[in-house]
Amino acid sequence: MGIKVSVEELQAAGFPMGGEPLVALDLADTVMTVRDPPVDLIGDPAASTAWWTIQARRLPLGPTPDPIAVRRLRTAVRDVLDAQVRGRAADPASVEDINATASSVPRSPRLVTTGQGARQETRWHVEHGGNAALAAIAGEVIGLLADPERLGLVRICENPDCSMLFLAENKRRKWCVGTICGNRARVARHYGRTHSLDT
């Protein structure tokens, strides 16, 4: 897909994190799992609309997915990525949900000729159901899981109060967002140093 969404754009819409190279990671990060109960950042219809509107330019054209289907895929994506990061086996049902969603909308290459030459596009076949956006996201996860080198770059934020996942294309990256969790860690370290000197 190659089109970017910035973390600043998502933060302006009320989301603390996002702008990862894969929509699948941004989707996984729409639930804050360190809270009890977990917080669904797209559970509200207005928030969901805002998130899908921002992500739309990175996804195939089509209607906004059904919220129940979104939650089901997000749960599966979160499970397989958390399993990878934490070194445990993913729930087989999660893997099956991802595979089923990816295969729910077949796609095919399409040759388009213009005055500037030929280019390839992808045609998503939604004639028989399914949602192209969810199928594309599931396909991203499959591609990520099948690429050991890139999969090894998936990290969870080092802030113990954060559950966000990210792709550490920069090996030194430790936090989901340096201006949020990174700043909190720096402030905590500074507080610990200055208050340990007071005793």
Plain-language structure description:
With about 200 residues, this protein is of the alpha+beta class. It has one domain (about 5-199): Jann2411-like domain (Jann2411-like fold). It contains eight helices and six strands. Strands 1-2 form a two-stranded antiparallel sheet. A two-stranded antiparallel ribbon has the order 3-4. A two-stranded antiparallel ribbon has the order 5-6. Strand 3 and strand 4 (about 115-125) form a beta hairpin. The longest helix is centred in the last third of the chain and has 21 residues, at about 180-199.
Please summarize what this structure is:
The protein has helices at 7-12, 23-28, 45-55, 67-86, 92-103, 132-145, 148-151, 178-198; strands spanning 31-32, 39-40, 107-114, 117-124, 154-156, 165-167. It has 199 residues and is an alpha+beta fold.
Distance between the termini: 55 Å
Percentage of residues assigned to helices: 40-55%
What Rg is obtained from the alpha carbons, in whole angstroms?
19 Å
CATH class: Mainly Alpha
* Biggest sheet record: 2 strands, antiparallel
Reported CATH architecture: Orthogonal Bundle
Q: Kindly state the mean pLDDT as a whole number?
A: 90
Shape: globular
> What's the CATH H-level homologous superfamily?
Jann2411-like domain
Tell me the fraction of residues in β-strands, as a range: 5-15%
